[in-house]
Design brief:
Chain A is globular and about 40 Å long. Chain A has no helices and 11 strands. Chain A is mostly beta strands and 114 residues long. In chain A, 33% of the residues are buried. In chain A, the strands form 2 sheets. In chain A, strands 2, 4, 5, 6, 9, 10 and 11 form a 7-stranded mixed beta sheet that branches. A 4-stranded antiparallel beta sheet of chain A has the order 1-3-8-7, with no helix packed on it. Chain B has 115 residues and is an all-beta fold. In chain B, strands 2, 5, 6, 10, 11 and 12 form a 6-stranded mixed beta sheet that branches. Chain B is globular and about 45 Å long. Chain B starts with a strand and ends with a strand. Classes of the chains: A mainly beta (114), B mainly beta (115).
C-alpha cells in the first residue's frame, strides 16, 4: 500500500463549485504540504502544516484553504473553483527529523475546472 | 527569495548514452539542500538524488550523479547508461536548511530516451 494517498485521483468540476482534495499518510510524519503543478512552472507551495495546530500559507494560497484533521490527514479546499485552478495537485510529507529531511509525494490529483 | 532555474525545457539522448541536465539556483544562504526529482508519465514524484550544500563531495546513486558547483550555484544531474525507463520530467529543487524548509522547484526538463 502507498504511504501517501490522495483522493480523488482525477476530478472535473464547474466554476463556482466547492471542491475538497484529501491526503492521507501512513508514514507517521508530522509535516505535510500541498503543492500545485502547472506546465512550465514546476511545483509551487500552497499550504504547509508542521502539526495539527500549525498551518501556514505558502507561495500561492489565495483561493485555497486547508484543514489538518489529524496527524495523518491534510485536506485542501477550493471554496469556489475557477478555471485557472485547473492543475495537478500534490500532497507531500516529511518527518522533520533533521534539517535535510526528504519530502515524499502522493500520486497527485488532476483537477479540471470548466 | 530563492529561485531555481532549469534552462532546458526538453532534452533527448540515445539509449545507453550519457546525458546531463542543468540546474542553477539563486540564494544568499549557506545552509541548504538540493534535490532532483523524477516524474514519469504515472505523475508520481520520485526522489532521484539529494545533495547537502555543506558537503563538497558530489552525491551519487547508481547511474545518477550530480555536479555540485557551490560558488557557481550550479547543480547538474548526470545520467549514465540511459535506459528507456529514465524517460520522464526531471525537476531540480532547493530547500533551505532553516525556517519552513519548503521546497522551491525549477520549471522542469522533459527527458526523452531514443531507442
Amino acid at each position: 500500500d502507498a504511504d501517501v494517498t490522495q483522493t480523488p485521483r482525477n476530478r472535473i468540476t464547474k466554476t463556482g463549485k466547492r471542491i475538497m482534495l484529501e491526503c492521507s499518510q501512513t508514514k507517521g510524519h508530522d509535516r505535510m504540504y500541498w503543492y500545485r503543478q502547472d506546465p512550465g512552472l514546476g511545483l509551487r507551495l500552497i499550504y504547509y502544516s508542521f502539526d495539527v495546530k500549525d498551518i501556514n500559507k505558502g507561495e500561492i494560497s489565495d483561493g485555497y484553504s486547508v484543514s489538518r484533521q489529524a496527524q495523518a490527514k491534510f485536506s485542501l479546499s477550493l471554496e469556489s473553483a475557477i478555471p485557472n485552478q485547473t492543475a495537478l495537485y500534490f500532497c507531500a510529507t516529511s518527518d522533520g527529523s533533521g534539517r535535510g529531511d526528504t519530502q515524499y509525494f502522493g500520486p497527485g490529483t488532476r483537477l479540471t475546472v470548466l | 527569495a530563492q529561485t531555481v532555474t532549469q534552462s532546458q525545457p526538453e532534452m533527448s539522448v540515445q539509449e545507453a548514452e550519457t546525458v546531463t541536465l542543468s540546474c542553477t539556483y539563486d540564494t544568499s544562504e549557506s545552509d541548504y539542500y538540493l534535490f532532483w526529482y523524477k516524474q514519469p508519465p504515472s505523475r508520481q514524484m520520485i526522489l532521484v538524488i539529494r545533495q547537502e550544500a555543506y558537503k563538497q563531495q558530489n552525491a551519487t546513486e547508481n547511474r545518477f550523479s550530480v555536479n555540485f558547483q557551490k560558488a557557481a550555484k550550479s547543480f547538474s544531474l548526470k545520467i549514465s547508461d540511459s535506459q528507456l525507463g529514465d524517460a520522464a520530467m526531471y525537476f531540480c529543487a532547493y530547500r533551505s536548511g532553516r525556517g519552513a524548509q519548503k521546497l522551491v522547484f525549477g520549471q522542469g526538463t522533459r527527458l526523452t530516451i531514443n531507442p
